[in-house]
Amino acid sequence: MEGLLNTFPHPQRSLQPPLVVFNPKTTLLHNHHVPMTTNTTTPFSNRRLHLGFFPKNNCINIKRDNSLGIKNMDDDDDDNDDMDWESEFVGELDPLGFLPPKKRKQQKSRLLDDSDEMDWCVRARKSALKSIEARGLTSTMEDLVTVNKKTKKKNKKKLANKNKIDKKDKELEEDSDFDSREKDFELQNMNTTVSMIAGGLFEERKEKTKEAFVQRLLQFSGPSDRRKEINLNRAIVEAQTAEEVLEVTVETIMAVGKGLSPSPLSPLNIATALNRIAKNMEKVSMMRTRRLAFARQREMSMLVGIAMTALPECSAQGISNISWALSKIGGELLYLSEMDRVAEVALTKVGEFNSQNVANLAGAFASMQHSAPDLFSELSKRASDIIHTFREQELAQVLWAFASLYEPADPMLESLDNAFKSINQFNCCLGEKTPDYSEERGMESNAVPDLDRFLGSPSLNFNRDHLGNIAWSYAVLGQMDRVFFSHVWKTLSHFEEQRISEQYREDIMFASQVHLVNQCLKLEYPHLQLSLRSDLEEKIAHAGKTKRFNQKMTSSFQKEVARLLVSTGLDWVREYAVDGYTLDAVLVDKKIALEIDGPTHFSRNSGVPLGHTILKRRYISTAGWKLVSVSLQEWEELQGGFEQQDYLRKVLEVHLGEGSTNTV
């Protein structure tokens, strides 16, 4: 009802109060303006109103209308009603202006707030409401308001329905994950069912499509475009980062997959791409975590997969380059099945390997801690046949690889004794930088051996790192009584003039190797009398025992075993040093040493102990200690503390006796 009253003019627009009369037949609103002047003369805001009389022709006589149920009114009654309305509108008249205005009690409305600052417009609205009630128009107004209420009810119903729909949508969204899982499960069942139709016809077609795509990528034996291959090889070699090499290679792979023929992805280019990726990683000393993240990229995985497919078509140089690249990119954490594949293919081409190929291939398997007994057996024979072609770096690398994996190398060691019988064939080059033969330059090139290796007696120019690696390898293999080793060891006397600093890791590693070899000579081969002089031995031992680069980290596995050892009630001593070795836990009075061997002590694919573990165990046993080994692989198979305690009791009771292990 209040909305209908908004048709009154605003007080700022007009100073004439409107006279509102409703015609019940048409329900139209007519506004008749009456002139009015206001004169404020007293502080009590007395108003002198000059009002004219309201003529009857300004009002519409309301006659009887039975349809609206309104009674007839006489003219006098109309005048009285009008005057009542006017007096109620403008207040009580005081022509002389002597009487103060009477305060009228106004009924508070829930629609309008009552305040002292109300203007005449608010009072006019209230008076109009009373006039409507007095003239019997309430029912008509109620009908109009009822229509609006019905409309509002409809709107409320629509909102309620909308809210219900929204709630249903939310419930559907909550169940969307479950529905999607059900759909995925149904889709898998459908795929399985479809693949079984017609004897697996659809699955067979899918495999054929995949094989066709792979064959397009690997068209090695078909027609070739030499110019495209050379251009791709040049782009790969000129790329400055591993990312750029991968980007160039992947672009070519996608082009071949879309129909580029003939494919420039020759086995040589694939091997070169992997080799250059690894080479660029080495150039910037890329962190190990970054290398692993790079190796797990989809594009990199695709390139490695193509390389494994193309491996049988690769040359001996390509196989060695791929294996070397995988060792630098993934280390001992990745490419387990890929290295098995490399060993399988390389075994068929051992006869084509040169000295560089043998050294790189063996070094790759050793750095990845990946055993390949059959391959190494053939590599030893191949190295024996071409022993005169080996460079100093290649000899040191291949011997280190055989020792690291503890693979027998008797044929190669025998050939070294026969080829280098004189001490005069050994030279020591102090401070010479170790050459790198792992890089494949441009297209493919084989290493050309020096002519003096075929003419007369070959000679070897070793640097310090070469001598340290070779000496350590012979110690691990237990072959320190050979001629070649004695010449290498005697050459170390030249390093008496060189200062070994404790500030450099290379110096500490060399000193540690030499110290261990010297201890093995004194303990296992004292009759050879090859141990270092006392002054040089003291110099090497002092540098080798430094803890600057030999800080040992205690694993959670070691802590767990050590905690259970306390429950035995025996006097265990942790981190006990014996001639350069540190034992995990010992019983000093009984000379029992307990070694807690984690995964770094074993081959990752076969689980056999690695060379450095074999050397330590042999030395500790030779020194008179009873060695007990607890491996992580066996420990992880135990369920709970009771089984672990029972396991310790069984491995210790052999050396301690039944009575000493009852407390375990």
Give Rg in angstroms: 51 Å
Largest sheet: 4 strands, mixed
Question: Percent helix among the residues?
Answer: 40-55%
By secondary-structure content and strand pairing, the structural class works out as alpha/beta
Measure the end-to-end span. 95 Å
Per DSSP, the total helix count is: 24
Number of beta-strand segments: 8
Low confidence ranges:
1-79, 88-93, 108-117, 432-449
Q: What is the mean predicted local confidence, pLDDT?
A: 75
| Adjacency order of strands in the biggest sheet | 5-6-7-8
Strand content: 5-15%
What is the overall silhouette? extended
Written overview of the protein:
- GO terms for molecular function: RNA binding.
- This is RAP domain-containing protein.
- Among the domains are: 141 residues, no CATH class; 101 residues, VSR Endonuclease (Endonuclease, Chain A).
- It is extended.
- The protein has 664 residues and is α/β, with parallel strands linked by helices.
- β1 and β2 form a beta hairpin.
